[in-house]
Each structure stands twice: as structure tokens, then as C-alpha cells.
Amino acid sequence: MVEMPDELRIRRIDTRQQDVRTALAELRERLSPRGDIVSASSRQRTIDVFGEPLSPQQVVTKICQDVQEHGIAALLKYSASIDRAQLTAAELRVPAETLAEAHAQASDQFLSAVRRIQDNILQFQEHLVPTDVRVAGPHGSYLRQRFLPLERVGICVPG
């Protein structure tokens, strides 16, 4: 019989058992951002890049802290060490001409599909936007919670 690597083993949860809620809670925790489900090769890559076996959440925290402290230099360092992409600061933003050229080469069917996906996502997300809250207090005072869109967001998806 061939032994399966740990990352390919599927845990079975029998929903007829009394402890199903506990088993599902444990599985949800393992699959959450706090979980530490990492393949052996990814674990080794983490050691190669960071010098120690960090959890996925620790990796993201470290990268975000480094980028916050060291800016583009840290971003370029991680692009090289994680993605093996040798970039310069000038290459981080795709030139408008390159985007226009790619758009011109895309088929009408593809662009239509992308627009439809964009519309679906936008429609769904608009229903999730919370509303501002204002609570009146004594003597004309008030407390307010506001929700404002961000102009720009950076995303790091390790692995």
C-alpha cells in the first residue's frame, strides 16, 4: 500500500457522531488564517526566505511590517525571494500603454465575460456596505461611526 503524504490525507468527519460540532470547529480553525496547514515544500520555502518555520499568519504579518517600515525596498526583496521575480521600482506599475495593448488584443467575448463578472461582484459588494451611524448624546454631542472607501490597497498572498 502506498503511504499518502500528510498534505493529501483527507480527514473524515462522521456527522452521526456526537462530537461533530467539535470536529468541525477544529477543522474550521485549522483552515482559518490562524491555522497552520502548510505543505512540506512550503514550510521549507518559508525557512529559506525567513530563516524559520513561520505560520502563514506570521509570514503575512512579517511581510506587512517589513513593507510598512522599509517600503518598496522590502516589496522588491520579497518579490525576489518568494516569487523569484527580479523587479525594479519602475516595473511595479504596469504602464498604461501595456494595459491598453493587452485590452486591444483581448477578444470581445473575454471582455464581455470580465465585465459581467465585475458587475456581479460590484452588485454583491454594494449590498454589504455598512451604513454610517450617528448617536446623539447630551448637550449636542454625538458619536459617529463612518465607513469610507480606501483609495489604494496593497495585497500580499503568500504561497
Task: Give the tags.
159 residues; mainly alpha; 6 helices; 2 strands; 49% helix
Describe this structure in words.
The protein contains 6 helices and 2 strands. It is mainly α and 159 residues long. Strands 1-2 form a two-stranded antiparallel ribbon.
Give a short summary of the structure.
The protein has 159 residues and is mainly alpha-helical. It has helices at residues 20-31, 40-50, 56-70, 72-82, 96-105, 108-126; strands at 133-136, 142-145.
Strand order across the largest sheet: 1-2
Structural class: mainly alpha
On the 0-100 scale, what is the average pLDDT? 86
**End-to-end C-alpha gap:** 31 Å
Number of helices: 6
Number of E strands = 2
Order of helices and strands: HHHHHHEE
Strand content: 5-15%
Flag low-confidence runs. Answer: none
- Bin the helical content: 40-55%
Q: Determine Rg (CA atoms, Å).
A: 23 Å
Characterize the main sheet.
2 strands, antiparallel
Shape: extended
